[in-house]
Amino acid sequence: MANSISLWVFLYAFWFLLSGHTEPLLLGFGAVSCTLVVYIAHRMDVIDHEGHPSHLSLKILPYWAWLSWEIVKANIDVAKVILSPKLPISPVMFKTKANQKRELGQVIYANSITLTPGTVTVNLEDGILEVHALTIQGAKDVLSGEMDRRVCQVKGEMEGKY
Amino acid sequence: MIEMILTGLSWFFILLGSAIILIGAIGVIRLPDVFTRSHAAGMIDTMGAGMLLIGLMFQSDGFNLVLVKLVMIGLALFFTSPVSSHALVRAAMADGAKPLLKEGVELEGALKDEGDKSY
């Protein structure tokens, strides 16, 4: 129930920011639409920790900031590789373990790897990631486990809760 | 004065984003196979699009709904682009495409192909 209410508030804020309307009639229509969506989602039983991860808390914000900076650094590396005349690529494919206990955490980790240019997650099965990297250096950065550790920290609060 | 600084920053980020997109496009042409090319495409939809959005945010004079919508576009890209990249390379794998790999590389800490479950 608490999750349904927080989903409703989230949807209504989203609707309001996109529409920008303040007339009572339209605000009412917005509220009705949100209620309908929450009702359907409730009936479909998709308001759980995956569909509406309200337990992730604000700890994810510093992680996003860190990830954005990593993305900028990785972009510069890939740009250098592409622009250098010799095209010094050394593509490798390797498997590594995702240390997050829950699937949502593993998906956050896998998507973070994909989001960083130079590394793409090809497969994720039973907590084993299969990663394709453009250069050996990129592969070593993933294997250093820094990102893995940080995702675990973000998820730290909710481990064992579900 | 403030106006000029904001316009300057806006130009800087828009040009930077455009440059990144151009480099990404060159990468898509230069790199040899679908997997390495997806890395170049990844540049375009992370930093290329991100820098363009930041540049546009400086154009929105002040805090208003346009700014909020630009942030929302950024978040939507942030969540969807890794999914599409992953779907692309996974489809390529499923279709039997073999990635070009550098031979004889031993990576410390990576799991071996045999005995995956015995870590």
From TrEMBL, chain A:
Keyword annotations: Cell membrane, Membrane, Transmembrane, Transmembrane helix
GO molecular function: monoatomic cation transmembrane transporter activity
Membrane topology note: Multi-pass membrane protein
Subcellular location: Cell membrane
Pfam families associated with the record: MNHE (PF01899)
Entry's family note: Belongs to the CPA3 antiporters (TC 2.A.63) subunit E family.
Record-given protein name: Cation transporter
Species the sequence originates in: Terasakiella brassicae
From TrEMBL, chain B:
Keyword Glycosyltransferase assigned: no
InterPro entries: PhaG_MnhG_YufB
Pfam families with a match to the protein in the record: PhaG_MnhG_YufB
Keywords recorded for this protein, A-Z: Membrane, Transmembrane, Transmembrane helix
TM region positions: 6-28, 40-58, 70-89
A GO molecular-function descriptor: sodium:proton antiporter activity
Signal sequence bounds: none
PANTHER family (alphabetical): ANTIPORTER SUBUNIT MNHG2-RELATED (PTHR34703)
Protein name: Sodium:proton antiporter
Species assigned in the record: Terasakiella brassicae
